[in-house]
Design a protein that fits this description.
Strand content of chain B: 15-25%
Structural class of chain B: alpha/beta
Order of helices and strands of chain A: EEEHEEHEHHHEHEHEEHHHEE
Radius of gyration of chain A: 20 Å
Strand order of the largest sheet of chain A: 6-7-8-3-9-10-12-11
Number of helices of chain B: 11
Structural class of chain A: alpha/beta
Order of helices and strands of chain B: EEEHEEHEHHHHEHEHEEHHHEE
Oligomer: heterodimer
Radius of gyration of chain B: 21 Å
CATH class of one domain in chain A: Alpha Beta
CATH superfamily of one domain in chain A: P-loop containing nucleotide triphosphate hydrolases
Strand content of chain A: 15-25%
Distance between the termini of chain B: 27 Å
CATH architecture of one domain in chain A: 3-Layer(aba) Sandwich
Largest sheet of chain A: 8 strands, mixed
Number of helices of chain A: 10
Chain lengths: 320, 325
């Protein structure tokens, strides 16, 4: 269980725009184990989607991965960021695939579902016959009736299209699937159905999953480990129970206090202020201006991510 | 409790023309015989999946849509048969808060202009000095303090949460008796939602406004609402007080919905069991059947042949389902 599958080491990403440079991801370390479900949560603009893009080396101009390393432990160890286009072709989708945010709108409107799923497989070296056979199976795994393959995207509902994307993400039998806000636009019942499918896939095929979302409640219900991101950094990471019952970073605590739950009758509180502008240099802890526990040091020195207790890391001066 | 808004058998039909050569008209019942009342100072939550008719209902009660059947009463008066003067009064007393804080503010108007306009429309002979004072008071109420700092700002200088507060300020400056808030926080970041919800709760306390709170997020709805109505394909299937509805859902659709909500507690971790309701999507075509019959795991013959009526099941808990008759 604790064998690493993907290791992210000190990764930095910048968006080099004409008038400014936005540091979207600032030195993130992260580890995804085999068969593990990892949740990455944070507000919009905290860099969580950018981080996910680096896993597949998908960051494109004006974005640039300025430093860091991503190691994938497959049959052999792969240094993802050093891959040449031909190597990337073998890595993407066959090892790691992705369900993109709003990808239900990314299906080609004028080709049938069958063709779109097959395209993916044919591109990655499956022969016509096997690919054709696999389409039915993939649709079934994603919880769809195989007859859907003859439909065009506009004939399907949002939930069905999103499931087609799950089928496509699984087409080449990857070991890791990254879901970037995969169910944000969907109804809660459909979301629950899709999550149940993905959890089943983890049990049956032994794949690892990464969920990137702003919905911290959803993460509580599915993830094994949670990374909380703020201003391009990981501010806290721990196993899910530890993070929810024993949160340490003031941002995590504030985030948990800001969401209503149908189980508890409590007054919720927003977090005052807004996240910092990542195109300007940040002095001290990026959360300090919004933090109710900030003291002098917080405004001067940026805290490092330190280990506190078992398997629990936090970057906050309160604990260092 | 006196009701501010009352809906009696309200039906709204949209027609959809399909096909180029053989034109076929398809009728979709966005609202199908809806009965509902919203009391004084009450916040009524309206939940349901997308396409269930929540927004249509919100528009209908503000007289922004014609109806195919039924009546909507505002303090006992039918809003569709009002004369011009009455409509003007009605417009002063009812307001709306929109979902999109980026699209619902005029980008070339200052905050002062945006908020003061509705006030000036309904208070013709008021001095500019008093308007400024009123605007400042309202800004303070929605937590944009100190208000002087915000008067001259333009929407692009504000964050999403601040914009939504301006939207609320614009809606409450006329002291409305009834507000429709259509997904007011769904486009805001999680950390900002709480404050906007608390402002809505406070303004209800201060102004005594009744609010129809439309949302697909049940946890958020439960937080602000006194009662919750559940909508499915143009029909209200269940109404109860918020905590009662969440803790003791009766209708199979409500049960599916409640079971699917993520709960921020790892002890409630999900397994691989899927929600009971069958998959598939369809529209309400006005057939004489329960709107949930085609998906319901407990469907019986009579569910397909007639529509269940709302019955009271427990204290102020109403449900439209044959399982309880």
């Amino acid at each position: 269980m604790n064998e690493p599958l993907l290791e992210v080491k000190d990764i930095n990403v910048e968006y080099r725009l004409r008038e400014k440079v936005v540091k979207a991801v600032r030195g993130i370390n992260l580890r995804i184990n085999k068969k593990e479900i990892v949740g990455i949560v944070g507000e919009s603009g905290c860099g969580k989607s950018t981080l996910a893009m680096t896993f597949l080396k998908l960051v494109d101009s004006p974005g640039k991965i300025t430093s860091g390393q991503i190691i994938y432990h497959g049959k052999t160890d792969i240094d993802v960021l050093k891959l040449k286009p031909s190597g990337l072709r073998k890595y993407r989708w066959k090892e790691v695939s992705m369900i993109f945010q709003g990808s239900m709108n990314a299906l080609n409107p004028v080709t049938r579902i069958e063709e779109q799923i097959m395209d993916t497989m044919l591109e990655h070296g499956y022969d016509q016959e096997t690919a054709l056979k696999r389409v039915d199976e993939l649709l079934r795994v994603a919880g769809l009736n195989p007859s859907v393959k003859n439909s065009f995207p506009h004939e399907l509902s949002g939930g069905m299209k999103q499931r087609v994307n799950i089928a496509i993400s699984l087409a080449c039998e990857p070991s890791l699937v990254i879901a970037d806000e995969a169910t944000t636009a969907l109804d809660v019942v459909v979301q629950r159905q899709i999550m149940a499918r993905l959890l089943k896939l983890r049990d049956e095929l032994g794949i690892s999953l990464v969920f990137i979302t702003h919905d911290i409640s959803l993460v509580a219900n599915i993830a094994d480990r949670v990374y909380v991101m703020y201003a391009g950094k990981v501010v806290e990471n721990a196993p899910v129970e530890e993070l929810f019952y024993n949160p340490k970073h003031p941002y995590t605590i504030a985030l948990l206090n800001s969401i209503p739950s149908i189980q508890k009758d409590k007054k919720i509180k927003g977090i005052p202020g807004t996240p910092p502008d990542l195109s300007k240099p940040i002095k001290g802890c990026p959360f300090a201006p919004r933090c109710n526990k900030a003291f002098d040091k917080c405004h001067e020195v940026e805290p490092d991510l330190i280990s506190i207790g078992q398997d629990h890391e936090v970057s906050c001066h309160l604990y260092g | 409790m006196n009701s501010v808004i009352e809906l009696e058998n309200v039906t709204k039909i949209f027609t959809n023309t399909q096909g180029i050569i053989r034109r076929k008209k398809k009728r979709v019942y966005a609202l199908h015989d809806v009965n509902l009342s919203i009391g004084e100072k009450e916040i009524l939550g309206l939940i349901g999946e997308s396409g269930s008719g929540k927004t249509t209902l919100g528009l209908a009660v503000l007289r922004l849509l014609d109806l195919e059947g039924g009546r909507i009463l505002f303090k006992g008066k039918d809003i569709l048969s009002m004369d011009k003067r009455e409509i003007f009064k009605f417009r002063e007393k009812t307001e709306m808060i929109f979902q999109d804080p980026y699209g619902s503010l005029n980008p070339v108007q200052s905050v002062y202009k945006i908020i003061s306009t509705p006030y000036k429309v309904f208070n013709k002979n008021v001095k500019e000095r008093d308007v400024i004072e009123k605007v400042m008071d309202t800004l303070e109420m929605v937590g944009l303090t100190p208000p002087e700092q915000y008067l001259a700002k333009y929407p692009n200088q504000l964050s999403g949460g601040q914009r939504q507060r301006v939207g609320i300020a614009r809606a409450i400056i006329t002291n409305p008796e009834f507000l429709v808030a259509d997904e007011p926080v769904s486009m805001l970041d999680v950390s900002l939602r709480a404050d906007v919800l608390n402002i809505l709760l406070e303004s209800r306390l201060k102004l005594g406004t009744s609010i129809l709170f439309i949302s697909h997020d049940i946890a958020v709805t439960q937080y602000v609402s006194d009662r919750i109505a559940v909508m499915h394909l143009g029909q209200i299937v269940e109404i109860a007080e918020s905590t009662e509805l969440v803790n003791n859902p009766l209708h199979p659709y409500t049960q599916t919905l409640i079971n699917s909500i993520p709960i921020p507690d790892p002890k409630k971790k999900w397994d691989t069991s899927e929600p009971k309701a069958l998959a598939g999507e369809y529209n309400n075509e006005g057939k004489n059947e329960c709107s949930f019959a085609r998906k319901c795991p407990f469907v019986m013959d009579r569910c397909r042949n007639s529509r269940p009526k709302m019955i009271e099941k427990g204290d102020k808990h109403y449900v439209a389902c044959y399982l309880y008759e």
